[in-house]
Design brief:
The chain has 2 domains: 147 residues, Quinone Oxidoreductase, Chain A, domain 1 (Alpha-Beta Complex), CATH 3.90.180; 125 residues, 3-Layer(aba) Sandwich (Rossmann fold). The protein is of the alpha/beta class. The chain has 10 helices and 15 strands.
Length: 323
C-alpha cells in the first residue's frame, strides 16, 4: 500500500511516499481501507518535531480518516464493508490503517468520505470545547479567532447550531468572504479594527461570553480583555507560532476562566463520551443542520503542499487528502 512516511523530522517537503505492507489488525483493532484523510495543523507540527507529543521517525502522520472496514480482530463486532470514521494516533495518511475499535465510529453511506474525514478533529474538538469545556448555552456570544481555518469553520457552524451569536475574527478580505459564506453573525477584521473595542461594541459593551482560540500569540491577550464577566477562553492551539504570556490579573478582575482543550487526550480517557458526541454530530449532519464541505482536497502526493499552507497561514477552511 502507499503511505506517507516521515523519515526525518523537519520540513514537510522531506516526507516520502513509500510502498509498505498492509498491517494486520490486533484482536481489538479494525483495519480500514482509507478513502479520505483529514489534514490538520498539528500534522505539520508533528513532522517537524514541534508538537506536544514527539514521535521518532520513521512514522506516518495523520489521525483522522474515513473509509470502509476491510478486516477486524476477533474482539470487534463491526462487519467488512461498513463505512466508518476513525481516529488513529498516527498512520492516517495511508491507504490502509489499523485503529482501536473504541476509536472507530460507523456512519451512514449517505455521508460522503470527504465530509467524514473532515468531521473528527475539527468538529470533534470544537464540539467538545463548546459543549463540555465552556458549557455554552443558547444566547451566549462566541468570538472565534482564526475563524477561516478548520476549527474556525467548525466553530461558526456548531456555534450557530447551539444558538450562539457568532463573531469571526479574520485578517483579509478573502477570509472575510469565506466566513460570511458560512453564515457568521458578525466579522471583525484584525487588520483594520481593534479586536477588544469591536467585540465590546458588538455585544453592547458587555464583552463576549466565550472565545475559541486556536491562534495564540499577542491576539490571545486582546481576546481575553474582550471577554464578559464569567467569560471562558478556550485554548485550542498556537497557529501563530507563539505561546502567549497572560497577565493573570485579567482573570481575577473579570472572573474569566482560561480553559485548555486537548481533545485528542480526552478521546483516549473518555471513549464513551467521545462516542456520544460523535452520535450527536452525525445526527446534525443527517438532520441537515450541519453541512461539511472541505475547501481544499489534495492527492497523497500533495500532502507536503497541504502542510505548507498551514505553516504559512494560507489555509482557509478544511483540508483533506483523497485516496
Amino acid at each position: 500500500m502507499k503511505s506517507v512516511v516521515c523519515t526525518k523530522l523537519g520540513d514537510p517537503k522531506l516526507l516520502e511516499i513509500k510502498e509498505v505492507d498492509i498491517p494486520n489488525p490486533h484482536d481489538d483493532e479494525v483495519l480500514i481501507k482509507v478513502d479520505a484523510a483529514g489534514v490538520n495543523y498539528p500534522d505539520a507540527l508533528l513532522v517537524q518535531g514541534k508538537y506536544q507529543v514527539v514521535v521518532e521517525p520513521p512514522f506516518t502522520p495523520g489521525n483522522e480518516v474515513c473509509g470502509y472496514v476491510e478486516q477486524v480482530g476477533k474482539d470487534v463486532d463491526l462487519k467488512k464493508g461498513m463505512k466508518v470514521i476513525g481516529l488513529p494516533e498516527i498512520g492516517g495518511f495511508s491507504e490502509y490503517v489499523c485503529i482501536n475499535k473504541n476509536l472507530v465510529i460507523p456512519i451512514s453511506d449517505n455521508i460522503n468520505s470527504l465530509a467524514g474525514a473532515s468531521l473528527p478533529i475539527n468538529y470533534g474538538t470544537t464540539y467538545y470545547a463548546l459543549k463540555r469545556r465552556a458549557k455554552a448555552t443558547s444566547g451566549e456570544s462566541l468570538l472565534i479567532l482564526g475563524a477561516s481555518g478548520g476549527v474556525g469553520t467548525a466553530s461558526i457552524q456548531l456555534g450557530k447550531i447551539l444558538g450562539l451569536t457568532t463573531i469571526a475574527a479574520v485578517g483579509s478580505s478573502e477570509k472575510e468572504e469565506y466566513v460570511k459564506s458560512l453564515g457568521v453573525d458578525h466579522v471583525i477584521r484584525y487588520d483594520k479594527e481593534n479586536l477588544k473595542e469591536s467585540a465590546k461594541k458588538l455585544t453592547g459593551g458587555k464583552g463576549v461570553d466565550i472565545v475559541v482560540d486556536p491562534v495564540g500569540g499577542n491576539v490571545t491577550e486582546e481576546a481575553l480583555r474582550a471577554t464578559a464577566w464569567n467569560g471562558r477562553l478556550l485554548v485550542i492551539g498556537f497557529a501563530q507560532g507563539e505561546i502567549p504570556k497572560i497577565p493573570l490579573n485579567i482573570t481575577l478582575v473579570k472572573g474569566v476562566s482560561i480553559v485548555g482543550v486537548w481533545w485528542g487526550r480526552w478521546t483516549q480517557t473518555s471513549p464513551k463520551e467521545t462516542a456520544e458526541d460523535f452520535k450527536e454530530l452525525i445526527g446534525f449532519i443527517n438532520e441537515g443542520k450541519l453541512n461539511i464541505n472541505p475547501k481544499n482536497v489534495y492527492s497523497i502526493q500533495e500532502v507536503s503542499t497541504a502542510m505548507d499552507n498551514f505553516l504559512n497561514r494560507k489555509n482557509i477552511g478544511k483540508t483533506v487528502i483523497k485516496f
